[in-house]
Amino acid sequence: MVTATPSAVEERRVPSPPGRNPGAPLDLGWVREAQANRSAAERRAATMTARRTVKKDWQAAWLLRAVTTIDLTALAGDDTPGNVRRLCAKARQPVRQDVLDAVGAGDLGVRVGAVCVYHNLVAVAVAALAGSGIPVAAVSTGFPAAQIAHAQKLAEIEASVRAGAEEIDIVVSRAHVLTGDAQALYDEVRDFRAACGPAHLKTILATGELGTLRNVAMASLVCMMAGADFVKTSTGKEAVNATLPVGVVMARAIREYHERTGHRVGFKPAGGIRTAKQALDWLALMKEELGDRWLRPDLFRIGASGLLSDIERQLEHHATGRYAAAHHQPMV
């Protein structure tokens, strides 16, 4: 776990309001100072996963923690209200009760972090999750490409909030990052934050389309200054989605932002995370780079659709010593 060293910056920290990042004025000097060394980030990611491992009961506990951080996602072109209702039923009971009982977690109330859907299915998900306490997240702002007018983006956010979404996953305009226009990116995300009202704002950087890790670091800082409650790697629709080296860069930007402002910002990797082993790698990265506080669902989420099935399969293997057939852990 990384522990911050007391400093003059540390002494000036302002306590963060519960659950929200209020943002900060855009500091272009800070943004321009951002650096990212690709070879160092790749080396850090490789050595971390090679030396950090958990086994037996510890592995089961970490996997259960991973379940609580999943944004269970339905973002396909053939989604229907019936599919979403079944997904919400899985969100309420993400792991079969007999498996939970077998690993000693039957009374822990394990549930996922959120259910993430397109705007037109928000009302369906809200109704299906009523009384569960599981929030609905809506992808917005012209997801996944963000190639619609700014006014339409704001209207889409506002409509999703009215429909009951408690979290909004917006997509930033990649052009602002690629052309180095930090002010335009800041203003855009600031407008999105205002449109969200009480809903938490998760900003998707689409890191696979930003060109360099330095761009990833700069975009992360600008979005946090603009009031993002989470920074998220990807839409899941890019050719390259969540990678551990990108995670290292974004986690260190989050740490630097916290050290300078006292405000905590969450992190959400998304896209291509399909196995229990990958989930454990991301949890290890959070623990090593940001500490235990970022292992909770209010500050860490994994955007995934198929991941839960493999985690449930691994938990059943832990309990019984046998791998179950795929139909024993259906998603919908």
Automatic annotation (TrEMBL):
Subcellular location: Cytoplasmic granule
Cellular component GO terms, alphabetical: cytoplasm
Presence of the UniProt keyword Lyase in the record: yes
GO BP: any one term: deoxyribonucleotide catabolic process
Keywords linked to the UniProt accession: Cytoplasm, Lyase, Schiff base
EC number: 4.1.2.4
Catalytic reaction list: 2-deoxy-D-ribose 5-phosphate = D-glyceraldehyde 3-phosphate + acetaldehyde
Gene Ontology molecular function: any one: deoxyribose-phosphate aldolase activity
SMART domains from the UniProt entry: DeoC
Cross-referenced SUPFAM superfamilies: Aldolase
Superkingdom, natural source: Bacteria
InterPro entries assigned to the protein according to its UniProt record, in alphabetical order: Aldolase_TIM, DeoC, DeoC/FbaB/LacD_aldolase
This protein's pathway: Carbohydrate degradation; 2-deoxy-D-ribose 1-phosphate degradation; D-glyceraldehyde 3-phosphate and acetaldehyde from 2-deoxy-alpha-D-ribose 1-phosphate: step 2/2
Region (Disordered): 1-27
Family of this protein: Belongs to the DeoC/FbaB aldolase family. DeoC type 2 subfamily.
The protein's name: Deoxyribose-phosphate aldolase
